[in-house]
Amino acid sequence: MRARAIVVTSGKGGVGKTTTTANLGAGLAKLGEKVAVIDVDVGLRNLDVVMGLEGRVVFDLIDVLEGRAKPRQALIRDKRVENLYLLPASQTKDKESLDPARFQDLVRHLLEEEGFDRVLIDSPAGIEKGFQTAAAPAEGALVVVNPEVSSVRDADRIIGLLEAREIRENFLIINRLRPRMVARGDMLSVEDVVEILGLKPIGIIPEDEQVLVSTNQGEVLVLKGTSPAAVAYLDTARRLRGEEVPFRNLGLDSDAQGLLGVLRRLFGGR
Amino acid sequence: MRWRRKSKDWAKERLKLVLAYDRARLSPGLVENLKRDLLEVLRRYFPAHEEGLSVALEERGEKMVLIADIPLR
């Protein structure tokens, strides 16, 4: 992606925005970029615990926006990988002070004066002010969607709002895909979601228990794991950097796929 | 050849319909009302039946069109 300020958003809550932000941020850092991940979910701070950095929060985003702390003081450096920094949301302060223009200035400052290559912005759920603020500095967006009706519907709404804001470099992250359910026709496939939403995927992340395990431990999966989601997140980070990385066969039995393929050919269509 | 209708096919069809309304900023109930009113007007001119009358939104490329299918007999 050419965009250096990228908002991670979804409309619907609970689809994996925060996990995606943490893993892509860490993945990009692992690949050599200097990355800031910013939690904009004021009042419901979560990126810090997902990344295991909750014990090191001193200042937060609102402190920076209101001038009580310098960006450098508030950014928490992740010690597990070089060049990964977290700017946590405020858990208690008034979110009314979350001013889109000031936030935009802050992100510009990080990119232009603090030497960051990329800023990933973890948007709150919803389409209200929190989202609007998170999207204000964005040049591109990652729309996290689960292959499920409510998530797809909300993603469509968000895509409309992004376009209205003239944020154009947008991609889907299709999260929590269950290849077996897709194979038996009980889950929307990647192709279905792409067809409905009319946006290209840049990441396809399979459902993976290790996501929860690593979150429990405060580890970022992409830095440790070799599990399917860890691999898929690192692939996604590479694609974000412009590498050509083919999408993997997500653990579908070659058997089942082969059989399905044969049936499709035999009966022409589904 | 028709297999058991897969649950994802339902999902896809329902999504396409609801998104058509969402994108057009219309409520599905409004179109139901339009259908009722349309029938009333139609009946002034010729015998029309509710049966088979369909009014639906359809996406044609960038455009959203309202399609009324009115069987005359």
UniProtKB/TrEMBL annotation, chain A:
In this chain, ATP is annotated as bound at: 12-19
One GO MF term attached to the UniProt entry: ATP binding
- Where exactly are the transmembrane stretches of this chain? none
Signal peptide range:
none
Q: Is Glycoprotein among this UniProt entry's keywords?
A: no
Q: What UniProt keywords are attached to this protein's entry? A: ATP-binding, Cell cycle, Cell division, Nucleotide-binding, Septation
According to the entry, every stretch annotated as the CobQ/CobB/MinD/ParA nucleotide binding domain falls at: 6-218
Q: Which GO terms describe its biological process?
A: division septum assembly; negative regulation of cell division
Has UniProt tagged this entry with the keyword Cell division?
yes
Q: Which CDD domains would you find in this protein's record? A: MinD (cd02036)
Its GO CC terms?
cytoplasmic side of plasma membrane; cytosol
Check the record and name the InterPro entries matching this protein: CobQ/CobB/MinD/ParA_Nub-bd_dom, MinD, MinD_FleN, P-loop_NTPase, ParA/MinD_ATPase
Q: What does this protein do?
A: ATPase required for the correct placement of the division site. Cell division inhibitors MinC and MinD act in concert to form an inhibitor capable of blocking formation of the polar Z ring septums. Rapidly oscillates between the poles of the cell to destabilize FtsZ filaments that have formed before they mature into polar Z rings.
- Which family does the record assign? Belongs to the ParA family. MinD subfamily.
Protein name as it appears in the record: Septum site-determining protein MinD
Task: State the organism named in the record.
Answer: Thermus islandicus
TrEMBL record, chain B:
- Mind listing the UniProt keywords for this protein, alphabetically? Cell cycle, Cell division
Family annotation (InterPro entries): MinE, MinE_sf
Q: Does the keyword Cell division apply?
A: yes
State whether keyword Lipid biosynthesis applies: no
Q: Name one GO biological process term.
A: regulation of division septum assembly
Role: Prevents the cell division inhibition by proteins MinC and MinD at internal division sites while permitting inhibition at polar sites. This ensures cell division at the proper site by restricting the formation of a division septum at the midpoint of the long axis of the cell.
Sequence similarity = Belongs to the MinE family.
- The protein in question is named Cell division topological specificity factor MinE
Its organism's taxonomic lineage begins at: Bacteria, Thermotogati, Deinococcota, Deinococci, Thermales
